[in-house]
Amino acid sequence: MRLATSDNRVVRSDGGLLSDLLDEGYDFFSGVPDSGLKAFIADVCGLPEGQHISATIESEAVGLAAGAYLAGRRPCVYLQNAGLGHTINALASLCIPYEIDLLLVIGHRHTLPQHRVMGDVDRLLLELMGWERYLIVAGENNED
Amino acid sequence: MRTREEAIRHLLDRHGTGAIYVASTGYVARAVHELAAPDHHVFYMQGSMGLAPAIGLGMALHTERPVVVINGDGALLMALGSTHTLRDHAPDNLFHYVLDNGCHESVGGQPCAPLEPGYPGVTEILKVQRGSRPPRVQLEPAANSRLVRDVLSN
Questions:
Q1: Is B147 on the interface with A (CB under 8 A)?
Q2: What confidence tens digit (pLDDT) does each residue in B70-129 have?
Q3: What is the pTM of this model?
Q4: C-alpha to C-alpha distance for A77 and A37, rounded to whole angstroms
Q5: Contact at CB, B60 and A60, closer than 8 angstroms
Q6: Is A143 within the bounds of a domain?
Q7: Minimal Cα–Cα distance from B24 to chain A, Å?
Q8: Domain count, chain B
Q9: I want to staple B59 with a disulfide (CB 3.0 to 4.6 A). Which of A67, B18, B77, B104 is the partner?
Q10: How far apart are CA A137 and CA A122, in angstroms?
Q11: Domain for residue A1, yes or no?
Q12: Choice among B10-14, B31-35, B128-132 with the minimum mean pLDDT
């Protein structure tokens, strides 16, 4: 995986990310698009039917991933950090108590006023909840 | 009009013990827990209101077993977008039932918006009476998860 820093939860580019995740055994993907994840999502959309479902909202993506996990899959949910708020209850009341494991791939936005608050706290929210399986993609094209 | 218990019994009989059930949070999960036989396999939601159809679809895409979602009207309304996701992606082994009592009964009976006659991605809406209060249960969520994962992985 393309590590930008010593912190292995932040990467600078989503190029090649899908093949890295497939190599790690992730086999079901759901989420809501983000411009910072364009390359990754383009790759995900090329997966065979049944390995990828585009969700209407991030909480639904977590539900889809949870169902896939319960059926023996290793799921990944992608989103922009603006949608992280929609996942909080699903993580807190479903994934954590039911021990449902999934990876969050989060496009990080921070520059514009409407992104600044979540840009400041996205990682803190996850750390506060004790959710460790996430990857922040903090590229240069995240504000389109 | 049927009671909630009669409707649930009807669904458990219709789909039998070969299916996996997803019981939505609140009185639905509590009533299913009271009525299911030991050989019915059920994922009992105790939170994440609204996500039962999504969880059911995530399961149904990866198993040949019938997956039977027993949802409530308030929970359906909370995630109406999921009706379109099910419309577009649900395989034939996914069934999505909605028990419609017109209210949020487990938190005090406050009315919710009346449903339309039908929705995409919904197999059937079953109108049910209010008034019963299924026994409270506290299940160990992680044990429930492991049980469902074992059933679906074999």
A1: no
A2: 999 999 999 999 999 999 999 999 999 999 999 999 999 999 999 999 999 999 999 999
A3: 0.96
A4: 12
A5: no
A6: no
A7: 12
A8: 1
A9: A67
A10: 12
A11: no
A12: B128-132
Structure tokens at A51: 């390995």
**Would you state the pLDDT for residue A8?**
75
Question: In which domain, by residue range, is A34 found?
Answer: 10-137
Cross-chain residue pair B141–A99, CB shorter than 8 Å? yes
What tokens appear for B118 in the block?
């039908």
| Chain A CB within 8 Å of residue B51 CB | yes
CATH of the domain at A81: 3.40.50.970
Name residue, tokens 């990310």.
A17
Measure Cα distances from A52 to A32, A75, A138, B46 in Å.
Answer: 11, 10, 23, 27
Indicate left, alpha or beta for B108 from its phi (over 0: left) and psi (-120 to 50: alpha).
left
**Is the CB of A99 inside 8 Å of chain B's CB atoms?**
yes
Which percentage of chain B shows pLDDT scores above 70?
100
Task: Please answer yes or no on whether B142 and A30 come within 8 Å at the CB atom.
Answer: no
Confidence of residue A1 (pLDDT cuts 50, 70, 90): very low
Give me the number of domains chain A comprises.
1
Quote the DSSP letter at residue B115. P
